[in-house]
Amino acid sequence: MRRSCGAEAALSHTFDEVVSAVTLNAQNFGAKGDGAANDTAALQSALAAAGSFAKSATLFVPPGEYRFTMLDVPSGVTVAGVRGATILKPITNGTTQISRLRVLNAHDVTLRDFTIDETNPTVRTGVYGQISFDNVQRVRVDNVEVIGSSGAGMHAMMATDLVITGCVVHGTLADGIHIQRGSKNVTVAYNHVFDVQDDAIGFVSHAQATAGYCENIVIVGNTLGPSDPDGTGHIGSGIALIGAIGATVVGNTIRGTGSAGIRITSIDEGASGFALAGNILITGNRLYDVGKYTGGIAQQKEGIAIYNARNVNVVANSSTRRWHLASRSRRRV
Question: What is the fold, at CATH topology level, of the domain defined by 6-332?
Answer without folding.
Answer: Pectate Lyase C-like (2.160.20)
